[in-house]
Amino acid sequence: MILLPERSMKSVFVVNRPLGVCVFLLGLMLGLILSASPTMAAQTSNPLPNAGFEDGITSWNIGEGGSKVVTEAARTGKLGLRVSNDGTKGRGSNATSASLSLTPGQEYTLRFWARSNSTSAGVYINYLNEKNRRVYDPNIKSGSPMIRIKHDDNQWHEYTFTATAPELAKKVQIWVHTFSTANCVIDLDDFVMAGFPADVQVKAPRPYKAPNKPKPIDWDNIPKPDKPINIVLKLDDLFVKGNQPTPRWLRVVEYIDSKQIKATMGMLTEGIATASPEYCQWVKDHLAKGNWEIWFHGWDHQTYTGPDGKKHNEFEGRSYDQQMKRLADSQRLAYEKFGFHFTSFGPPGGVGTPSQDATTHKVMIDDPYITTWIYPTAIDELGKQTNQQGDIVILDRVWGVGIEPTVGAADFEAFVRGYIRNVQKRDYFTLQGHPQMWNDHRFEQFTRIVEFLIDQGANFVLPSAYAKTLR
To answer: C-alpha 223: how far from its chain's center?
Structure first.
């Protein structure tokens, strides 16, 4: 006798029946079992544990920034995931799921529901290898799939995404992330990962561990350096578009001018050929003031897929002729439209590979105008060799001292901590920032950094002019 789970207080018995009838009844029983046990069916079709957050934060790494599981975020059931950011969280707000095993070439589908007041967040797919290191998809610009939250009407919307695992991928996990400068509240619920075999391996992420809080800064006893520190304000990503830079850029430029200090703008040159007369005049007017230097930051800041199938930054992995063409075309256009040649260079980043290589060094040495290289890292062996060669001065970077601990997130206190630790060891700092990414809070953090440096007696310098003093 086989006793079925039953929904109507009835039992079904199988006794002596022909084989065909028994097979039919067994199939019927299986269907009844699955329909009577939705949990069993869900485990087969959706291996992602705690996909609806009914078990709180179990099987998720939740806690960084403004991530939490709350009743207000539920679409179905009692709980859902809420990620929020007020524009002050340098790393955004994040949540990471358990990982699921998969094989290269395996197709799978991610589905979920989201409700948001902003489009400043995304649900990312992270691929991992057998050592839990990131694997990047060469067919995707950023290296990882991302489903951007595209509705800001505070209504629930379903999102569906189908992808194929790249070569070397052994695991996949979901990463929910708000952008660092976002101001948003986003609710998510009812995740589904489909297309996985019954023997899929599931591994929970490491539990979230809050970072240790740094010691309070003794604001009344911050020492001043023995001699004034030289500061290069390296402001990145000035696009040539429209009749003038964007309002965020203009706000920063006007602030710098009001403080009567020197700063730089890293220009991306692809748009110079079609620059409007108004934009050209804006550039000429600001160069004429004498407190600005515009340097070469790249042609388009775009990553590309190399012959090795990996993503590379603009000035890394390309041939000498390819890199030289980007620089030579930029020099020609800058002179034709603005009346100057670039004398400083700072390569663009974008993905985890280096921003430059040995070929870049040769290109910059061979260019007749470049005299200064605003290095994106601490100086390396190639940089030392270029410095010794004598045609170019490299101004390197101290990682612990910067406007932005993470890209786009200007942070006054983080800067001051790094400054205190390093100021007596250096003659200069190059401070990188991205004005287009600064919301009101980040802009205010930048102004506090500048005013702190002014109070410290810092000497704001232009890279080309300062480099001449180091020859």
So the answer is: 34
